[in-house]
Amino acid sequence: MEDKASYWQDNLRLIFICLAIWFVVSFGFGLLLVEPLNEFRLGGYKLGFWFAQQGSIYTFVGLIFWYTKKMNDLDKKYNVEDA
Amino acid sequence: MDELRLYTWIAVGGTFALYFFIAWWARAGSTSDFYAAGGGVTPLQNGMAIGADWMSAASFISMAGLIAFLGYGGSVFLMGWTGGYVLLAMCLAPYMRKHGKFTVPEFIGDRYYSRTARIVAIVCLIIASMTYIIGQMKGVGVAFSRFLEVDYDHGLYIGMGVVFVYSVLGGMKGITYTQIAQYCVLIMAYTIPAIFISLQLTGNPIPQLGLGSTLADGSGVYLLDKLDMVVTDLGFKEYTTGVLGNSVNMFAYTLSLMIGTAGLPHVIMRFFTVPSVKAARSSAGYALVFIALLYTVAPAVGAMARLNLMNTIEPVAGQNLEYAERPQWFKDWEKTGLLKFEDKNGDGKVQYVADADTNEMVKVDRDIMVLANPAIANLPNWVIALVAAGGLAAALSTAAGLLLAISSSISHDLMKGILTPDMSEKNELLTGRIVMTLSILLSGYLGLNPPGFAAGTVALAFGLAASSIFPALMMGIFSKTMNSKAAIWGMCSGIGATLLYVFQHKGIMFVKGTEFLGDMDPNWFMGISPEAFGAVGALINFTVAFVILKLSAPAPQEIQDLVTNFRTPHGEVAAAHDH
């Protein structure tokens, strides 16, 4: 029981970190901070525009795989893996 | 028969023969096969199927066209329709898979220990899915009529027949394998023309990089800078900075699409078909990889199509296209009425500017951009034929997935779960197929008589899912004490507020003339468009639920134990997965 509670706490912490990044790259860089970021360039892309149309999507993909890997480790650590 | 028509018949006919073969080969034998493919689909396969299921006619045909004309404002679709998978992978899919049921209303019914909650979820699901599917059927009709050169009505009948054969006979197992094939077709159809066009314009074959490169004409100017210059010269909003409405609207729009993605039942259902909790997490990751392949190419397709269109009309500044010398694709699309020219100043040349008084391209339908794009760029005919097959694959795969969600919620949740619990498996399967057939007929009928529907309909469906199902699921998983009364009132007020806002601006049941407040920005709450209101609806849902929870008793202990159970992958599943 104790174990299950701290497994869930660890999971929540991980979700919180991921969703913070999720929010920053899309709503942060892509929408709220787009104007200051557009002062910088990435090749022909304005940086804010790049985050809105490319960067945020790449980050989303990376986040899910990172979370999956971390959770698989957690499952092992707490010995709660499914079949 | 000319070459293009021959290639189109080969591409469309060949891919359809493949889909039918797969549907027959993988036909469903049991309810478990029918709803959840027997639980035996690998994460990679499932990811691909989710990708096809997810990317509808709206993604394939409309989205790049919207981006082409909205520029930066179109980012809401790119972020909104991908960001939801992060929420799915972390906040919903693993726990719902662990709980081990077939449908979303079933999960809500169990978690909130209430038949009423299950019925409310069924109603929300049907409203959101039907709104979505009508747009798809219309897409199927348009695509068939355009490529088989029959009128729209016949195109729609053919489409209904095709959807009937493989979704009604195949069930989830057939649909899953067919969708894998459809994903391959649609992604090739989308990326191959993009690669050609990117090469032509920038010399870089990767469209994502080409969009950030310099033009291949030797000028050394970046493609996006050139595009900004061309459109602002003609009085349009700057491509890379023009916003959609205002920033509050863009924020709400993006959020609404994201949480709507995570609340749409036909997507969530997919995560019941994987063998384990681990696989549910990675399925979401693979799905997003496959979706991102199209979504990161789309901005390049949009920008390059816009630039090509502008260059065709005005190859050199001040030297406009002679109307008499317009290219073949221009004439073809004029016939459909989706592209219209009116020589206002009588000089025989085409002027395309932002000012409505002098603009002579009086109609450039955004939905034609992806389909017309290969022809505008003078690509070979086989590429154009491939795009036809891809558009059909996208529309059909999504329609099939939605039909399955609707039929399972009626036959499994409403009939078997509530009205006639002692129904046999065979009869349940039969009911599922009858409901599917009726849904095809109803959506076909509404597709023939579209009540003022547009591409925005799809966005409305997301708002409805975002304001009802998503909050109920989140609270059910992350709050142990959330009780049935609070969840039911939350769902009702969330979807109620969203429907009210949509109806007051778009007409009751979208019928024109019944809207009691006009469909324009001055009447919008904080400038938020009806398509973006789902985020506000979700906020209302959460608020109402937590206020009622404070005023009533927490969920009983056995429900709290149930939540503890599905939060961990290990251990007993609440009910056997295979009936």
Name its key features.
heterodimer; A: 83 residues; mainly alpha; 80% helix; 5% strand; B: 579 residues; Sodium/glucose cotransporter; 2 domains; 1% strand; globular; disordered C terminus
Textual characterization of the structure:
Chain A has 3 helices and 2 strands, in the order H-H-E-E-H. Chain A has helices at 2-32, 34-37, 47-77; strands at 41-42, 45-46. In chain A, strand 1 and strand 2 (45-46) form a beta hairpin. In chain A, helix 1 runs antiparallel to helix 3 (47-77). Chain A starts with a helix and ends in a 6-residue tail after the last helix. A two-stranded antiparallel ribbon of chain B has the order 1-2. The longest helix of chain B has 51 residues, at 152-202. Classes of the chains: A mainly alpha (83), B mainly alpha (579). The interface between A and B is large, with 46 and 52 residues.
What layout of secondary structure does this protein have?
The complex is a heterodimer of chains A (83) and B (579).
Chain A (H helix, E strand, L loop, with lengths): L1 H31 L1 H4 L3 E2 L2 E2 H31 L6
Helix pairs in contact in A: 1-3
Chain B lengths: L2 H23 L5 H6 L6 H12 L2 H14 L4 H25 L4 H8 L3 H34 L3 H51 L4 H4 L12 H11 L13 H17 L1 H4 L8 H37 L14 H9 L2 E2 L22 E2 L4 H8 L4 H39 L5 H24 L7 H23 L5 H23 L27 H18 L5 H11 L12
Antiparallel strand pairs in B: 1-2
Helix pairs in contact in B: 1-8, 1-16, 3-8, 3-13, 4-13, 4-16, 5-11, 5-13, 6-7, 7-8, 7-16, 7-17, 7-18, 7-19, 8-13, 8-16, 8-17, 10-13, 11-18, 11-20, 13-15, 15-16, 16-17, 18-19, 18-20, 19-20
Gist?
Chain A is mainly α and 83 residues long. Chain A has helices at 2-32, 34-37, 47-77, and strands at residues 41-42, 45-46. Chain A has one domain (7-77).
CATH class of the largest domain in chain B: Mainly Alpha
> Treating each run of at least 4 consecutive H or I residues as one helix, how many helices of chain B?
21
| Ends apart, CA distance between termini of chain B | 53 Å
CATH architecture of the largest domain in chain B: Up-down Bundle
Apparent shape of chain A: elongated
Number of domains of chain B: 2
Per DSSP E runs of 2 or more residues, the count of β-strands of chain B stands at: 2
CATH superfamily of the largest domain in chain B: Sodium/glucose cotransporter
Sequence of secondary-structure elements of chain B: HHHHHHHHHHHHHHEEHHHHHHH
Percentage beta strand of chain B: under 5%
Largest interface: A-B, 46 and 52 residues
Shape of chain B: globular
Instruction: Output the strand order for the largest sheet of chain B.
Output: 1-2
